[in-house]
Design goal:
It is built from 14 helices and 22 strands. It is of the alpha+beta class. It folds into three domains: 187 residues, FAD/NAD(P)-binding domain, CATH 3.50.50; 107 residues, no CATH class; 71 residues. The strands form five sheets. It has a seven-stranded mixed sheet, covered by helices on one side. A hairpin with a 5-residue loop joins strand 10 and strand 11. Helix 2 packs parallel to helix 5, helix 2 runs parallel beside helix 10 and helix 11 runs parallel beside helix 14. The longest helix is centred in the C-terminal third of the chain and has 33 residues. It is globular and about 80 Å long. Bound molecules: flavin-adenine dinucleotide (FAD).
């Protein structure tokens, strides 16, 4: 039987139209599924959410998915490649220094950086142009409940503006609804296995709990008060603040964009007790920014409305790295099996330190595709296979997120210095003895390695460093004793 015929009666509901949700819809449509519904509570794919306007770097791992859809070329056209990453640092005294960012290892696939909403729009455009007959996207629609009556799944959703009620009885429910996933929480309530497999397990990191907000700037802003030079859209900027005490010290990190007309965004990440989070209105924010960045015409390039919005916004805070070990559930009824599967942030979530949130979500979808392929789309076989193939990577991914790069936000100078010593020692040792020492921050860029392989190589490196340290200590002691 062909895949097309097999799937005629299969339909799927995907909760969440973020990167994982749209990617899953495309993957299922390409596999021949006919009735795919995406429920998304936001009003549109490219809806501008100021505090979610950060950039993604889609690396080789994420490109396993875009390659599958022939989308990598389109992605490249709307992104800044990491072969061309330049950063201009503007110090508080006005001195500027531009350097090429060493973010890329030479023999790795080029990564593409673009705003989150541009990436979501790219995926949605593919749905809209080529898969409308198979995929229905209901924006402004919130999934309210997931019910199970004798093995039959019922999904209840409601239109946010018009209160329209929806009910679905899918063969497959995909939970792509992010960190506070309703689908995962429902599975956790239903689970009576005693294993807590749908409960999140937490692994605190040094960046968890840091607060962030995003400030929107005009597209082509001047770099100083004399208008002597305009910003280049494909260049990243780090504007260093004049204050040095921990309550007020601040940097603005401005992402590179391919589109010269797109408003630029400056991300502010700092500790929750920082002075900037206490400023309640545009006026107070203006005063603080003026004093903080005397070298930079910040108040000319951020509108009063935007300052007011920024001051009033709740912003976000970096999550504690977390995952749950259960990735799927099968329900059986008299006719067949229905299945529920969790992907992306719904199952593994962490701060953005290692840039793997979206890439790991796209890799989940890629692996689910493989599981469906190997089992001829039979849900009762494919979901267990998916969990078997993917779950060994998830705890290692969380451990990498927890340990690899959490001190990059200047939240604690001692922590950052110790981390830098550790990092440069690993980098140095890997240069002289590459077959023995492997720094995780470099390995993550190798999409051919799974997270579990990267984590075990990083752990091996740690053991070798301890052994080397012991050899050096005991060797020095032996030499000292010899000389006495
Ligand atoms: C500040 C910040 C910077 C980041 N930077 C990076 C980075 O540089 N690189 C990177 O790889 N990752 C980064 N990430 C992480 C990345 O954004 C996430 O890992 C990624 O978005 C996960 O995709 P997802 O589709 O699983 O979940 P989400 O993107 O969270 O999407 C979930 C979707 O589900 C919808 N939804 C939720 N509940 C319901 C419901 N009940 N009904 C209907 N819809 C619902 C939401 O509206 C949302 O659109 C960053 C995250 C943050 C917070």
């Amino acid at each position: 039987m062909s895949t097309e015929t097999k799937n005629l009666n299969q339909n799927a509901v995907i909760v969440g139209g973020g990167p994982a949700g749209f990617a899953t819809a495309l993957m299922l449509a390409k596999r021949g599924w006919h009735q795919i519904t995406v429920l998304e509570k936001r009003p549109a794919a490219d809806f501008y959410e100021p505090d979610k306007s950060f950039n993604y770097l889609i690396d080789g791992r994420g490109q396993k998915f875009t390659d599958l859809f022939g989308l990598t070329e389109k992605l490249a056209k709307i992104s800044v490649p990491n072969t061309e990453f330049y950063l201009t640092e503007i110090k508080a005294d006005g001195n500027r220094k531009t350097s090429k960012l060493p973010t890329r290892v030479s023999n790795r696939k080029t990564g593409y950086q673009l705003p989150r909403r541009a990436f979501l729009q790219l995926l949605f455009q593919e749905i809209d142009e080529n898969w409308q007959d198979r995929i229905t996207t209901l924006f402004n629609t919130k999934c309210l409940e997931v019910n199970n009556k004798n093995g039959k799944l019922t999904i209840i959703a409601q239109g946010i503006n018009d209160q329209t009620n929806y009910q679905f009885q899918p063969d497959l429910l995909v939970g792509c609804d992010g960190i506070n996933s309703l689908v995962r929480q429902t599975l956790d309530k239903w689970d009576n296995s005693g294993t807590d497999k749908f409960k999140m397990q937490f692994f605190p990191s040094a960046s968890s709990g840091l607060k962030y907000k995003v400030l929107t700037l005009t597209p082509n802003f001047p770099l100083d008060h004399n208008n002597s030079e305009q910003a280049v859209c494909t260049m990243a900027y780090a504007i260093r603040g004049a204050f040095s005490d921990s309550q007020r010290s601040l940097s603005l990190v401005i992402f590179p964009f391919a589109n010269p007309n797109e408003p630029r965004t400056a991300v502010i990440v700092t500790r929750p007790e920082h002075e900037i989070w206490k400023l309640q209105d545009a006026e107070k924010l203006s005063e603080f920014l003026e004093k903080s960045f005397p070298q930079f015409p910040i108040n000319k390039i951020v509108s009063s409305e935007e300052k007011e919005r920024f001051a009033k916004s709740e912003g976000g805070s970096f999550p504690i790295p977390q995952y749950c070990s259960g990735l799927h559930l099968l329900l059986s009824n008299t006719d067949n099996y229905t299945g529920i599967v969790l992907l992306g942030d719904a199952v593994h979530c962490f701060p953005p330190d290692i840039g793997q949130g979206v890439n790991s979500a796209l890799e989940d979808v890629f692996i689910l595709n493989e599981a469906l392929e190997q089992t001829n789309n039979i849900i009762s076989d494919s979901l267990p296979l998916f969990e078997y193939l993917r779950s060994p990577d998830i705890k290692p991914l969380i451990r990498l997120a927890q340990t690899v790069f959490p001190w990059q936000y200047n939240q604690n100078i001692v922590g950052k210095r110790l981390w830098s010593i550790n990092f440069f020692m690993r980098l140095f040792l890997s240069k002289i003895l590459p077959f023995i020492f492997a720094p995780a921050v470099i390995l993550i860029q190798n999409h051919k390695l799974s997270y579990r392989e990267i984590w075990s190589m990083a752990q091996r490196t740690t053991i070798y460093i301890y052994v080397l340290g012991m050899v050096l200590i005991f060797g020095s002691l032996a030499l000292l004793l010899d000389n006495f």
